[in-house]
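[audit] Reproducing an earlier prediction to check determinism. Same input, same settings, fresh worker. If the tokens differ from the archived copy the diff job will pick it up downstream; this log only records the rerun itself.
[audit] input (178 residues):
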Amino acid sequence: MLHWFLSELGSLIQATAPILHTYGLWAVFSLLLAENAGVVFAPGESIVVASGFFSAKGILSPEWAFLIAVLGAVAGSGLSFWLGDRYGHKALLRYGPKLWISKEMVDKAHRFFDRFGAPVLVIGRFIVPLRQLQGYLAGTSDMQVVPFFLWTSVGAILWVAAWGGAAFWLAQYIPITG
């Protein structure tokens, strides 16, 4: 099981290594911003894992890689929050019935996010595609800005620390071929 996990981490690193070698921390920030703003196919976890691995190998500064990754994730979530806040609720009420989304469903989702918004933002960071959608959901549900940024930041810190930290501490065991 551990061998499989380390092999998977190696695959993630190899997939993103050319991007990191070429663009460095700009790639970390940009790709995490894109992924957390809703671009589902942006390689968020892969770039965080590769950043942790490259930091362990001395190619990237661990402190800067961590900070830039967290900032990119929070900035992307902030962008999606703003879009959800600005357009989401109105769009759901206007176009939702065409997608079988009733006003009652929108209100129910709003109440759910009022009650469980903080855990959704923290735990949801670890769940694809919730990570990409949570900013839109929070903004559409009229979550307040300060709690949103507090909890999305906590989630981003834990997420980057978990994936980047795992790659950093396991770097010597991760098989990289080619």
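[audit] rerun output stored. Observation attached for the diff report: Residues 62-95 form the longest helix (34 residues).
[audit] end
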